[in-house]
Structures are given as structure tokens and as C-alpha cells.
């Protein structure tokens, strides 16, 4: 942690050399770093070379620039510097109207008394450093908060990845649906640069966790989903509202409150019908992430071998009570290349990377299944493979699908 260092530099500007000498003598034992300037036209140069100063005193009546002009320039270069005008009694009335113009906080009369100037200098230095230390501490706090935010973001992202892996473990079709919905979601988000960074982050996490509620269903229901397929969800009363279970699980986790709200409302229709029935949200009052997920999940559910993609979306557009049609139009603009399944390749286990998709079950040489096909590899699963391979070698090579960012 860095420490605050006081600024005790004082500048006195006056065209009278004897007064500059007197000021230096006056401040000799006052723990100040004294600088003087006899040519007021050189104020800009000394501010650049020696500043910033804690305090600047300037005589008013000087050739070149007068005191008000000097202190105005100080205010522009270093607005925190304490600025004091030194002026004769005869100039007082003429100067009063110009004091605010230079941001002058105080003025003293000439000839000044030594016992008058010393405490003024000390008080102004203390005031400058008190404000400077406050700014320093606020900057330190801001930096610590940013460090904490980055740490928390990393922790939360790690938790989301683990939960996403757990949701994918319910069944092969669940893992495949997770992948397809996530890819489509990422594609449509790339076409929405206008949304905030926070909203974009929350939607991305919701794309990872929209099936998390399946993990909270009774084991018998999970077994049926694994055995009979993802279509079981829409026909089973116990599974139909699994999104509510996920939302209730996430709502009290710091930074995931917005994600929980997206999942809570992702089955609401555009006209407001649907669960949770106690929510009156409808139309564009529904979170953007909820409206996107509603479309993408139904697109997956309604698609068949010969009836998919744009054809399904065109039919969905007719259901203005169900969907945000503007979002469907956006999705129809997604380039087909973004929806491709990607390049397929066989790789040794030790070359598998995060983001790759398994195209076959991953089994050990003893025939034990570790991961199911259609699972997207994450940091968690890659670490699992590394550790498992040390105990029971894994059959290699493995067929995988590269993600969009792989070469």
C-alpha cells in the first residue's frame, strides 16, 4: 500500500526582490519548500517545472501579469492549490471585484507583518494537504474496490461455470440444448452493442444457468429426462416450472440477483401470462434476458429435422402474445455461419481445451464413462480430465467440435 506524501511547496511571486528575500528568510525554519519568482510572465514555466504548489502568493501590482492574472493561471493549472493575493491598501477596492475571477481564497495587505504571514502559510499548507490526503484515500479505496470487484467477478464466474456443468450432467439432450441455446444467445448479444455491460453479463450468466433447476428436481424425474429426453420437461408437472427453482436458488447469491430475476420470468409470455402468476410484468417490462431465453428455448423445442431455424422463427413471429417480435426479427438477422456447428476434429486428451464440445462419450481404457457427448468442456471438466488421467488412463484420441474462437 502506498503512503500519502505531503506537498509543502510554497511559491511567492513579486517583482520586488527585497520582498522575495524577506519571504524566504521568514519561512527558513518553517518546514516549507520555498520558491520565488520575480517575473510574473514566467508563471506558466515554473508551474510546469516545479509545481504543483500547496500555496501560491502573488503581489497584485506587477509589470507583465498582475496578481489576479497570475492566480487565475494557477487555478487553471492546479485548481487545488491555495491562492493568496498580496495587495496594497490603495488597490483594495479595485481588486475586490476581481478576486473571484482568480479563485482567490484570501488576500493580505502590504506591507505584511511576519507574525501575520507565518500562521497563514502554515494553515493553508495544512488545508491543502488535508484535502489532498482525502482525495488520495478515496483513490486508494476506489482501487481496492475495483480489485475486490474483479476478484468477486472471477469467483462468481467460477461458481456459474460449476453450476452450468452440474446442469449439463442431467442428460445428453440437456447438455446439447445448453450448448445450442448458449451459442444462439451469444450471437444475438453480439448484435446488441447498445445494452449495458452489466445487462450483457447477466444475460450471459442466464444462458449458462437456464436449466439449473433441473438439478433440483427429484432423482426419478431427472432419470426420466435422461432416459426419455428433454421433451419430458414440458409434459411433467414437477419439471415444467424448474426455472422457478433455479431463480429461488440464485436470488440470495451476491451479484446473481439480476440473473435470478431473468430465470424467474423466462417463461412469462409477452402478454404477461405464465409463471410466476403473481408477477404482473409483461411486454418490455420483462427483462431482456427473459425475453431472449423464452424465444431461444421454444425455438429449440419446436425445431425438427425438416422444420428449424428461420422457418420456426417465422411461425413464432405470428404469436405476438407469446414473444417479443422485435427480438425474433433480430435473431433472423443472425448470419448462418454463426449458427454452424463448427469444425470437427480428433485430438489427444491432453490437447482438449475449454470451449470444445465432446462428440462422443469420454471413457477410460477400462470402459468407465467419465463425460457424456455433447458436453462443452469448461475449466472444471478439463481439470477433472487431468486428474482422472493420472488414476485411470482415458481412451484417446477424442472427437470434438471446435468453438467459434478455435483455430
Output the number of helix runs: 16
- How big is the Rg? 35 Å
Largest sheet: 5 strands, parallel
- Ranges where pLDDT stays below 50 over 5 or more residues in a row are 337-341
CATH superfamily of the largest domain: Hypothetical protein af1432
Strand order of the largest sheet: 2-1-3-4-5
Number of strands: 10
Key descriptive features of the protein:
five-stranded parallel sheet; elongated; 16 helices; 3 domains; Hypothetical protein af1432; Molybdopterin biosynthesis moea protein, domain 2; alpha/beta; 407 residues; Rossmann fold
Could you please describe the fold and organization of this structure?
The chain is α/β, with parallel strands linked by helices. It folds into three domains: 130 residues, Rossmann fold; 172 residues, Orthogonal Bundle (Hypothetical protein af1432), CATH 1.10.3210; 67 residues, Molybdopterin biosynthesis moea protein, domain 2, CATH 3.90.105. 49% of the residues lie in helices and 10% in strands. It has a five-stranded parallel sheet. It has a three-stranded antiparallel sheet with strand order 6-10-7, with no helix packed on it.
Quick structural summary:
The chain is of the alpha/beta class. The chain has 16 helices and 10 strands. The protein has 3 domains: 9-138, Rossmann fold (3-Layer(aba) Sandwich), CATH 3.40.50; 169-340, Hypothetical protein af1432; 341-407, Alpha-Beta Complex (Molybdopterin biosynthesis moea protein, domain 2).
